[in-house]
Design brief:
By secondary structure, the protein is mainly alpha-helical. The protein has a two-stranded parallel ribbon with strand order 1-2. Among the domains are: 2-31; 62-114, no CATH class. It has helices at residues 2-6, 11-32, 42-45, 85-103, and strands at 68-72, 107-111. The chain starts with a helix and ends in a 14-residue tail after the last strand.
Length: 125
């Protein structure tokens, strides 16, 4: 209470200030105590990341009048055994899916990036 009198505080007001100072001091102390180690970036946790289980595959019925098949980025610049083996290996399956979609009247959309003159295929001059 002597400290409160030095600062000009009396009674209940000095108790409130003292309690506020205790709360602040305890908060600072709690924040400075070592806790469990936490990763600073996603790379720090990469090896311990757990993937969810894959979803269960279920049969579906597709109405060609309400269905579009999007065929995206299958180009000789990127989808080759040398550059992306998994992509190249999927081409026969995509060809079959595309033939089935066409045969059943589904709308087919292609997405292919055009090369502009002077670029190396990756957008670099």
């Amino acid at each position: 209470m002597k400290l409160a009198h030095v600062q000009g505080l009396k009674g209940e007001e000095s108790v409130q200030h003292f309690m506020a100072a205790v709360v602040v001091a305890l908060s600072i102390l709690a924040g400075s105590l070592p806790g469990p180690a936490r990763a600073q970036t996603i790379i720090d946790e990469w090896a311990s990341a757990k993937l969810p289980a894959p979803p269960e595959l279920k049969p579906v019925t597709i109405d060609p009048k309400e269905t579009a098949l999007l065929v995206m980025d299958f180009t000789v610049q990127t989808c080759t055994p040398q550059r992306r083996l998994r992509c190249a290996n999927s081409v026969p399956k995509v060809e079959k899916l595309l033939a089935d979609a066409r045969r059943n009247g589904a709308f087919v959309i292609y997405s292919v990036q055009r090369r502009r003159a002077g670029l190396d295929g990756r957008g670099h001059p």
